[in-house]
Structures are given as C-alpha cells and as structure tokens.
Design a protein that fits this description.
- The protein has 677 residues and is α+β, with helices and mostly antiparallel strands.
- The strands form seven sheets. The protein has a nine-stranded mixed sheet with strand order 4-3-2-1-5-8-9-10-13, with helices on both faces. A five-stranded mixed sheet has the order 15-17-22-19-20, with no helix packed on it.
- Strand 6 (168-171) and strand 7 form a beta hairpin.
- It is globular and about 85 Å long.
C-alpha cells in the first residue's frame, strides 16, 4: 500500500517511512462529533476498555479520527444546540488540553477505572480545522490508518448523525462551511481506498440513525461484504464499543471474520437497547451484500408488476404501507420517512385481492431479504433488517434522493423512484387518502398489535388513552390486566370525538379473541368479569370518513393504595423510560400519597425533530408536572386538574430529561408526542 499518495488531513501529513508490522484486524472509527459531542469521550473510553480486554494474541488495533466540535459556524454564529458539556475535551489523560480541531489516535488500552471519564489515548492533532463531511477526508483517513496500523482485515465504523442515502456525518457549526457525506461520496472514498491504497473492508458499520436502508446497502455492495446499521433512530450513547468488540477478546489472530464481528455488534446493541414494551430504538441488523443484487432484482419485478395495478390494488398497497413500521427524521421541517421493507412486502404477499404477479413478486422480495440479513436484534416491532424510502403523500421525493439512487444504480435496478411517483398519483385519486395515515399507537393490525395498557393502578383505577384516528370499518386493539373481579361502574368507554358516536367496543378474554364477553356502542361493561387479561377492540363505523376517539378504562382497583413504579420517589431512583422517538403512552402509573414524588428519566436520541411534548394524564385530579434538563435546571412546569402538556427540545443532540409528578394521589399516565399544536 502506498499511502503517500493520500492527501493531508488538516495539518496532519500522510505517514511515510518503513512498513509497520501487519496485524490481524484494524477497526477504523470516523467520528464527527457535532452536537453529539458529549457522547464522544464515553465511546472512546469504551474502545479503550475493549483494547484492554483484547486477546494477547489477537493483534487488533483501533484507530479513531476524532473531529471535535466548536459549536460555531464559518460566520461565527453559535449553534443554538450547543451547551456546556459538549466540549471540546482533553485527551492523553489530560496531557493534551482541550482542543477543538481534529486528531487521529491509535486507541490505548485503558489503565484507569471505568468511572474515570478522561480519554487516555493521545492524538496527533491538526492545527487546522478539518471537514469530515468531505469524502476526501474519509479517504485520506483510511490511508493514514492503514499506514499506522496495517492489517489483514479492516472494519470501518461511521459515527455521527445519519439520514439514510442522502446524508450523514454532518460536519456543521464547526468553523468551516457546513457539509455532510452522501452515499455517493462515501462510495468514492472507499473506491479510492481500495484502488489506490489497497484497503478493502471486511465490514462497514454505521453508529448513526436510519442507515439500514436498502438504498445505502446496495450502494456499498461492491465495497464490503457486510454492512451493519439501524433502521431506526439510534439513542445518544450509540454502540457499546466495549461489548461490541468482544469478538476479539477471547480469540487469537485469524479466528475472527467479518460475520463474527457483525454478530458481536448486533448482540451488544441488543443487550444495551432491547427492552420490550414501548422501547423502539432497538433495531440493528447485519447484511451480506453479495445478495443485494438479487434483492434489487426482486424489487424490480415488484415495481414492474405494479405498473398494471388497478385502483383496488393501489388501495391494498397503501394499506400495506400503513402496516409497515416506519422510521423517520426531520430535515429542515420536512419529514423523511422510511418503511420496513419486509413488513410492507409481507402484507402485499399475504393479500388475496391483488394479482398473482404482484403477490408473487412481493413474496420474492421477502425471501430475498431473508437471505441477506444474517443477524438482527430481537426488537419490539420485529423489523426485518432493511428499510426503504416510502414517505406519506404530503412529502415530495427530494432531488438529492433521486440523484443518489441514480448514481448507485439502485433506480435502474429497482425502478423504485418511478414506483413512488405512480403510488402517489394513485393515492391522490383516492377519496380520502389521509385515512391511510397510521394511528400513533400502530395497534390497528389485529390482536397481536394491541396497545398494552398494563395493570391500571391507583384509586380510582382508570387508564386513559390519548386521541387517535381510525379509518372506516377498522379496529384498534388494546390489552389490559385486572387484579380483582369487576364491579358496577367498571367499564371501557370511547370518549367523544368525530364519528365516535357510532364506534363499537368489544371486550374479549385473552385466550378467546373471537367471542366477546361484553360489547356495546361507545361503551362496554366489565361488571362480573374475573381478574385476568382482556383484549378490547374498538371498531369505527363502516362508511364513515374516519373516527377520531380516545379511550378510558375504568378497571376494578385493589383494596389498598400502592405506588407504581414502587421505587421512583427521588431523582436518584427515577424510572428510566429509555429513548423517546415516536408517540408513546406510558400507563399503569400511580402514586399512593400526596406528599410522594414520582420521577422518570428519558432521552431524545440522535435524530432532529422540530420539538416534542409530554402530557400528564391525571384523571381530573389536581397534579403538577415538572421537566428538568440533564443539569437539573427546570425547563417547564404546569399544574392543574386537566391533562398537563409540556414542550421539550428534541434537536438530535441526544438530550436527557427528568420528569417529576406531584399532587393528588391516584392513577395517571404519561403521553409523549411530536405534535406541538
């Protein structure tokens, strides 16, 4: 390899001199800090602990390009998301005082305790600012790292914000003009590394949001055999590098391949984030790229078959779109939405109403997808591993997206852009296309999708479900558990809303979802039902445009008051709600005494949203809701007997917040939404 032909990285000149000994693996991490800067040092510390646990004969090195963040743009304007604690940071165990440009470091094994936050690794620091949104910087870093730590196997991890095929590693508000990598730019950098410098990657991973798209993986198909990425938003802390690199801990050189490392990344991510319940930032998948040509061809057969689709077929396709899990980001006020490819195609393949050619083509896509995804987390929504751009009607297909899929050959192989154009045209011809928009709870696809309300707690024991929109004739499903026989007054009610007067409520025992134990229009009584688990189906009126409703469950309550959760009476013992990235209801909460505080924590992850809200559903009792930032400063507060709503910033900087609930005892819920109306 002749890395001398590579360019400088800021003031860091290319390495020259004698060839260093060739190791087994070198893991390169391309870290663009931006407004995620406060997560950089903890991740580097994890890498240092991983380096300390490597097998003595493993011969593995980790090289990081660390682009720290200033928070100021080329005109000297400060990013409003910049706040104390975002750097810059010192390195070298304090021997290199805080610096704000970019540096390259060969990760040193940790020698200080885990609790010590200071980065021990020393970096070669550029005196000039570096644009990590420039593909040439990525290419030059790869050449430098391969000279610094040559190896038989290479892995590349991209670290920062992600946004799918259109852009990632957003080097903004960092002295130089804002810039970001695109998929075509990354392809150019990796192609140069392979052809000029002889560096080929066994694995490329993205510690970034929304990068497990079919379009991105396809673009990289000739440059790496394995891609690891997430369909969903990634939480602020990102990968657990200490655990993710454990593939190297117990094995000597020559016994770890790209598949082993990919599985280790996926397993570590699952251990950190897969929690069940409402937690949804839990997707990570590993893909074999040699099968992506076949997957693209299968998608192409599907889009060809769709050219003959009639109005009813497009309705089925739209319903399948509504069923599939969605993953989204907010780019300058415009929502970019990806849908799970396997879930969408599975719904079309299962439909008896579409032509055989369309159904067969969709089934081929599902089969092909299953053959390329070889490891994934057991996430809450059972995502299939790859998403595809599939926005709602009101969003246009941006020119940047079209340019990227044309450049990679994805459009010519699949015809996906043309399919989207036809789909939108068919949707506009439908009487009420807005009725196809998914309801926030995603619970309108059979009993398996039921929104779990848990065990309604407190006195009175009432669970309230925020308003949702249901299409004509559709059924939304809910599930709850009771701990006592129901008495008079215990019931499930549909609260007033557009079209709600005609809604039918049916209650089923969990083990018999075919025969209702109670039913009625707008309400159904629980009286006499024993303790157990019940399903509730709310069906909208046939022929109605749509039904807008909310739900109240007045369940039998225990004889004594209790706290739920039982041990969150202080900020130090707050209940961790994880990462909030979409509408989410937290129910089954209760406080036993007026003088007891209930504390909760949550974070906002690595995706930029315009803003979000949290509401306290307090059952008409006088209560207080207070929101605090990570430093403990009060952000907002509200008091009253009605539902209380507070707004908070979800800028993409992985903010952490605490909530305190006080006031009248009894049951309550928390509802998170991205609606600021």
């Amino acid at each position: 390899m002749d890395g001398s032909r590579a360019g400088a990285i800021g003031s860091i000149a290319p390495l020259d001199g004698p060839q260093k000994p060739v190791g087994d693996w070198t893991v390169m991490v391309y870290l663009t800090a931006t407004d995620l800067a406060h997560n950089g040092p903890p991740n580097i510390r994890e890498m240092e602990r991983a380096a300390a646990s490597m097998h003595p004969g493993g011969d593995v090195q980790i090289v990081v390009l660390y682009d720290q963040w200033t928070g100021y743009d080329a005109e000297g304007r400060k990013d409003p998301k910049y706040k104390a604690g975002m750097g810059p940071f010192a390195t070298g165990g304090g021997s290199q005082p805080a610096w704000s440009t970019a540096g390259i470091g060969l990760i040193a094994p940790a020698t200080t305790p885990k609790e010590d936050p200071d980065v021990e690794t020393s970096f070669t620091i550029s005196t000039a600012e570096v644009d990590t949104g420039d593909p040439s910087t990525l290419g030059n870093f790869i050449a430098y790292a391969a000279q610094l730590a040559p190896a038989r196997h290479y892995a590349l991890v991209m670290w920062d914000h992600g946004g799918g095929v259109e852009g990632f590693n957003n080097d903004d508000f960092d002295v130089l003009p804002n810039n970001a990598l695109t998929t075509s730019g990354m392809v150019a950098a990796l192609t140069t590394a392979r052809d000029r410098d002889g560096v080929a990657f066994d694995l490329v991973a993205f510690d970034e949001c929304l990068m497990s798209t079919t379009e991105v993986a396809y673009a990289l198909r000739d440059l790496t055999p394995v891609v690891v990425a997430s369909e969903e938003i990634i939480s602020g802390p990102g990968y657990d590098y200490q655990e993710a690199l454990q593939a190297f801990a117990g094995r000597p050189a020559g016994q770890v391949d790209g598949d082993d490392l990919a599985r280790s990344l996926v397993d570590a991510f699952g251990a950190r984030y897969v929690r069940g319940g409402g937690w949804i930032r839990d997707t990570l998948a590993a893909v074999h790229t040699d099968g992506l040509g076949g997957l693209a061809a299968a998608i192409g057969r599907f889009t060809d078959a769709a050219k003959s689709a009639g109005p009813s077929d497009w309705t089925t396709i739209a319903e399948a779109w509504s069923f599939a899990s969605y993953f989204h980001d907010d780019e300058e006020g415009e929502v970019v939405v990806y849908r799970d490819l396997g879930q969408f195609m599975s719904q079309v393949a299962a439909s008896a109403s579409v032509p055989d050619a369309l159904r067969s083509a969709a089934a081929d896509v599902v089969a092909s997808l299953g053959s390329v995804v070889f490891a994934k987390t057991d996430d809450a929504r059972q995502a299939t591993g790859l998403s595809i751009l599939f926005p709602p009607l009101e969003n246009r297909i941006r020119k940047t997206y079209t340019a990227q899929i044309v450049a990679s050959g994805f459009e010519s192989a699949t015809g996906w852009g043309s399919f989207l154009t036809s789909y939108f045209a068919a949707l506009r011809a439908m009487p009420h296309p807005e009725d196809l928009d998914p309801i926030w709870a995603r619970n309108d696809h059979g009993t398996a999708s039921a929104l779990d309300l848990g065990v309604p707690a407190g006195t009175p024991t009432t669970a309230t479900v925020p308003e949702m929109n249901l299409g004509a004739g559709e059924t939304a499903w809910f599930q709850f558990r009771t701990t006592d026989r129901a008495r008079a007054g215990n019931m499930v009610r549909v609260l007033p809303g557009r079209g709600a007067a005609g809604a039918v409520v049916r209650i089923y025992a969990q083990d018999d979802p075919l025969h209702p134990v109670a039913q009625g229009r707008r309400r159904a009584s629980l009286r006499g039902l024993p303790a157990g688990t019940y399903l509730v189906g709310v069906t909208a009126t046939e022929g109605a445009r749509s039904t807008r409703f909310s739900l109240s469950v007045a369940a039998p309550h225990p004889w004594r008051r209790a706290d739920a959760p039982a041990s969150n009476a202080s900020r130090a013992t707050a209940e961790d709600l994880g990462t909030i990235s979409a509408a989410r209801l937290v129910s089954g909460l209760a406080r036993s005494r007026a003088d007891r505080e209930s504390w909760f924590t949550f974070d906002t992850g690595r995706s930029a949203d315009a803003g979000s809200t949290v509401s306290l559903l307090g059952q008409g009792r006088f209560m207080s809701l207070s929101l605090y930032d990570e430093a403990g400063a009060l952000v907002a507060a509200a008091r009253g007997a009605r539902n209380l709503k507070l707004a908070y910033d979800a800028s993409g900087a992985a903010e952490s917040y605490s909530l305190k609930v006080t006031g009248a005892p009894g049951s309550f819920g928390l509802f998170f939404d991205d609606d600021l109306s």
